[in-house]
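> tool_call: predict_assembly(chains=two)
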Amino acid sequence: MTDSSRHPMHELVEEYVLELLDEAERAEFETRLAVDPTLASNVAAAREALSALALSTPVALPAGLKQRVMAHAVAHPEPVAVEAKVLPMIPSRRSRAPLWLGAALAASLLVVFKLNHDLGQERQATATANAFAARTLDAVTQRDSMIARLTDPSVELVTLASTGDAKPAVKVYVDQKRRSAVLSVASLETAPAGQAYQLWFIVDGKPIPSVTFNPGADGRALVQDVTLPPGTVAATAVTREPEGGSQAPTSAVLFVGAVKAGK
Amino acid sequence: MSTLYDRFAPNLLGLALRITREQADAEEVVVDTFAQAWREASRFETGRGSVAAWLATIARSRALDTVRSRTRRGRLSDAAEAESASSAAPAMGSAFASPVANVIANEQARRIRDALMELPDSQRAALDLAYFEGLSQTEIAERLGEPLGTVKTRVRLGLRKLRELLTALGPEGYA
């Protein structure tokens, strides 16, 4: 833990949460962040401090803002059809019923429909909250699982060196024991149309095809549960291939990294 | 969502007002913040921070985008003369969702503001420019007429000091 906190990235926590790092620094920081629980904890604490700074001046809420928020965030029962049914209740001049009776009846129906509408909104809000909690729990579970896997002693981090510009960061977490790997990419440009990047594992001197991937607009990609091929993986590499992947490399190796023997 | 709104909307609107300095823009930021939070709820990770920090991050980003967009359109001419967020907004806590929420929010805000006041002015100014105006450290240095290295140190020390002060307040201090 002490060694971890001496890593130079720990000096950049404040700049990171304030979004003051440049793109390359941010990519390097986040690569470290993915494997350093102490750093992640410090980032979380810094974010909490910033949120306190941000949220220290509450103000009064204008009328109607909550309705606008809910309308945008939650799909609730549509009241238009209900109001359309009410409109014919306005009496015509030929009606014997007094005007006030029709108006009162219409108003009563509006109240009933409004109550139903409110009840529907309340049920929707409850369902929304439950769904939110379920998704949050699922996200936490997945993250815990990922952290447990990456910090397992059997996992080796292989940083792939670029054969060209050194800017992109390509890392593979190789778990020989479980025969799986996790691929992490940062600052990588999107492959041209019709093409994708492909990961290869080198076994007995031969490239074994693995997953294809493409970074998002932010240059990042994370591929979990990559299956290792049978045999001892000596190295891993990345090439650019036709979309859908190739059985053998058809272009020059862009990134390559050796896997230590015996892990 | 309703619960989240009641708990955080007054603070998020205060944040948005402080950055945008316009009531209509600030309200739009709050609406967009909750909409984005709802859309991205599955990506929220409790292990990486609180809901408050998550919502504040979204709101700040939205508010800064609004200001930058306004600047690009050249319609920010009156912004410098606009009333400050605190004076433009209604009196703090005068219309919260409930009296209980009102008391809690005001008490937490007071404790946090007290903590902020313990920061040296120079550190607080650097933090404000970085967080509420979204300036780079170079821009902060130019604005304050200070060397870049000095600004970096102030930002770092200011945020660390704030963390220490808030830690002393305990988990109820700002979460």
